[in-house]
Write a structure and sequence with these properties.
The chain is α+β, with helices and mostly antiparallel strands. The protein is elongated. Helix content is 15%, strand content 35%. The protein folds into two domains: 8-241, Class I glutamine amidotransferase (GATase) domain (Rossmann fold, 3-Layer(aba) Sandwich), CATH 3.40.50.880; 246-525, Beta-galactosidase, Chain A, domain 5. It has seven helices and 33 strands. Strands 2-1-3-4-13-12-11-7-8 form a nine-stranded mixed sheet, sandwiched between helices. The protein has helices at 8-22, 42-56, 72-76, 98-109, 128-134, 227-241, 514-525; strands spanning 29-34, 59-64, 80-83, 113-117, 136-137, 143-144, 148-154, 168-172, 175-176, 179-180, 185-192, 197-207, 210-215, 246-249, 253-258, 261-267, 276-280, 302-305, 308-309, 312-313, 327-337, 343-352, 361-369, 378-388, 393-396, 414-418, 427-430, 446-450, 456-461, 471-475, 480-484, 491-493, 498-508.
Length: 529
């Protein structure tokens, strides 16, 4: 950080900003302005930027004056990073540490928003990632004339930032011939009498999952007072904060987003073992799934787990270690996304009775997750093939009441959905017309759960499955339901033999009738001709 004289007002301002950052308003977009060095007057432009964003009412804004204090952990709490910094300020460009460079790039690459104000992009000309993130940068041949009045016209009135905006006048510094990254989109521009061309004044692009917005206006605090500048700044910052719709991928997750909301996410981290889907939500945003609730921390939203394999518990986890006696090991995950966003996932899993024990069973798991249809409903198809390896494998569950060591909660194991308290109080209904508690431990081709505020989950059992139709384990209070494939008795897979299970979950944005549910099951379960 460059040490320089700060006025009392500026010091008070920075202290006030730090207080805001320490206690962020979680319902607002979290913005961090990076400043503290610039060949422009950052001590007046930074408060002006913050005031504009504060007055918009949609942002919680903090300021940092030393880029080296930016860490991956600190950036994780931020939605948008605004750069009002460059490496000059009358001095030589200041180098950044490798740790800072890595945190900066990964923040944007992984979905963080990035906004550049005026000369905030004028640094690191040999750092390709930085240039790409900043979109429009200074190069040989770039220049500007004195501050003057000019028009800013909207070159793309369909973009969320500029939609509804009209041409406006501003008195500012107009750059000409900036170096613009390939793939960038100009959404506002101004005519330069120097070049005789329309020059970009606002641009957007994408870097990895992050949205990038560059606003080349804003030479000083006075030029930032025009309504046009304020509108571009606030709408551009809001746009940069929003994640992209469609399929999103990280090292250990695959997600679908619609209208800025996460619809589903498949978690496939080998460190966690059992893969799961959370959130599981309707396209209208109603989240059904509950992850690791306090009453059963091993419940993982939409997931699969055996209870006992050869007498070893693979279901519950030790609260002290977070691990089960038996290990469910995720060995590999491969996936493919079609042109229409249908996701195909292939996993290989193994089961072992202890950390270093020899695998006793392998599983090939295939998921197909469809894109939402015209009604907003989508489908998760789940197929698992379990193969016993050198010896027979006995799959078991907690015995039922009346059986040796039976419990009133016995019978569960397999594919399950644990829901959250927000959707509790809904209605269970089975293919046999049984509702709520009457459906518990009763056989059915499908079971449907309708939430009180709309949306339903249709869970289907396939005719080719073991013990079809499954007896369903229904826990209304949680709520939870599962087609318990070994509800009545254990099952043995002979050495070298296979057990295949198929299920379908259909997520509807609104309630459906029993007849519609039956039609969907029939279409899915009918033999292929």
């Amino acid at each position: 950080m460059i040490v320089k004289y700060l006025s009392v007002l500026t010091l008070l301002y920075l202290v006030f900003s730090a207080t805001l950052f320490a206690a962020p308003e979680s319902d607002k977009i979290q913005v961090l302005i990076m400043t503290g060095q610039n060949n422009h007057d950052w001590e007046t432009t930074t408060p002006a930027l913050k005031q504009i964003l504060d007055e918009a009412g949609r942002f919680s804004v903090d300021v940092i004056t030393d880029p080296e204090k930016l860490t991956a952990q600190g950036l994780a709490a931020c939605d948008v990073l605004i750069s009002n910094w460059n490496g000059y300020g009358g001095k030589k460009p200041q180098p950044w540490s490798d740790a800072l460079k890595s945190a900066y790039v990964e923040f944007v690459r992984n979905g963080g928003g990035h906004v550049v104000i005026h000369a905030g992009s004028s640094s690191f000309y040999d750092w390709d990632d930085y240039q790409a993130i900043c979109i429009a940068t200074w190069k040989d041949g770039t220049g500007h004339k004195a501050i003057h009045e000019f028009d800013v016209r909207i070159s793309d009135d369909s973009h969320p930032i500029t939609r509804g905006m009209k041409k406006f006048k501003t008195t500012d510094e107009l750059w000409f011939r900036p170096h613009v990254q390939l793939g960038a989109k100009v959404i506002a521009e101004s005519f330069s009498k120097t070049t005789g061309k329309w020059e970009p004044t606002a641009l957007v692009s994408q870097f990895g999952k992050g949205r990038c917005f560059t606003l080349l206006l804003g030479h000083d605090a006075k030029t930032m007072q025009s309504d046009g500048f304020k509108s571009l700044l606030t709408k551009g910052t809001e746009w940069a904060a929003a994640e992209q719709d469609g399929i999103q991928e990280t090292e250990n997750t695959i997600s679908m987003r619609m209208n800025g909301k996460e619809i589903w996410t498949l978690h496939h981290n080998p460190e966690e073992g059992k893969p799961y889907i959370h959130p599981l939500a309707t396209t209208t945003g109603q989240v059904f799934s509950g992850l690791r609730p306090k009453d059963h921390v091993w419940h993982r939203a939409l997931w699969f787990s055996w209870k006992y394999i050869n007498g070893v518990n693979y279901w519950e986890e030790d609260p002290a270690t977070g691990k089960s006696e038996g290990k469910t090991l995720l060995l590999s995950t491969k996936h493919d996304v079609s042109h229409d966003n249908e996701v195909h996932v292939d996993m290989t899993l193994a089961y072992a009775p202890a950390e270093q024990a020899k695998h006793i069973m392998r599983e090939k798991r295939a998921l197909i997750i469809s894109p939402p249809d015209e009604t907003g409903a989508y489908t998760i198809d789940w197929t698992s093939e379990f193969r016993a390896l050198e010896n027979d494998v006995v799959l078991d569950r907690t015995p039922l009441p009346g059986q040796p060591n039976g419990k009133d909660y016995g019978g569960y194991a397999g594919y399950s959905i644990r829901m959250n308290k927000e959707v509790s109080g809904g209605t269970f209904l089975t293919s046999e017309g049984l509702a709520d508690s009457k459906s518990h431990r009763q056989p059915a081709r499908w079971t449907m759960y309708s939430a009180p505020k709309g949306g339903c989950l249709l869970f289907m059992d396939h005719p080719g499955n073991l013990n079809y139709p499954a007896k369903w384990y229904i826990a209304e209070a949680m709520p939870y339901f599962s087609p318990s494939v070994i509800h009545d008795a254990p099952h043995t897979i002979k050495a070298g033999e296979l057990l295949q299970l198929r299920y379908r979950v259909r997520v509807h944005p609104s309630a459906i009738e029993a007849g519609a549910a039956q039609a969907e099951w029939t279409e899915w379960a009918a033999p292929v001709k």
